[in-house]
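Input/output pair, single chain:
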Amino acid sequence: MLVSVIIPVYNGEKYLNSCIDSVLNQTLERGKYQVIVVNDGSSDGTREILKEYGNKITIVTNSHNHGIAYTLNEGIGIASGEWIKWLSADDEMLPNCLETLLKHATDHNTIYYTHYHIIDAKGQRIRDFVEPGRPASDLWARYFGNGSSSIIHSDVFNKCGLFDDTLKFGEDYEFWLRATMVYDVNITLIPEFTVNYRNHPDQLTNKVGGGNDRIIKDKIKGQVAARKTLT
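Output:
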């Protein structure tokens, strides 16, 4: 298996069909990737929607809500793909997303990310987000790289560990910093558009109202210091 696509979902019935369908309709041969959806204690119609897909997808169901980092880790734990592809349940892959990523993703010690289209709640394109392509050192000043556009080899998780499930949000930023600053993983832009990133009132980034950068950076500082002590 080349790629495991992991979709964490919590009360995501509104956009879940379009998300999953965008993965199942990839130009990449179906036998080369798997779809894992982790239902993180949803109380809406998410469970019923997932049943519609039968054996086309692998479903993990949690009895209550744990958060994105926890659900991503669950998906990674059962993934059989060489590469791990995160996709938020309100976003969509472009049809050639996986083929494009695999064409460019060659280094097993790199976090790859791409440009993306921003769409509204109805799926209409608002604008294009073109990533400028920054060095890893710039991550300390600002987060860059959309999680839904990323692809990461399983070797990176074996080396760095999984997402920090003590964080309710900002798990992507923490992982990017930990991987690059503590474990010398690269981060590289693939200058292609691969996903539609949905901007809508109910998305988690709007609900939580910002990040927890200070907590994350304090964690990373401690890990960098500990590594220097050991070496």
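The two ends are 36 Å apart (CA to CA). The longest helix spans residues 213-230.
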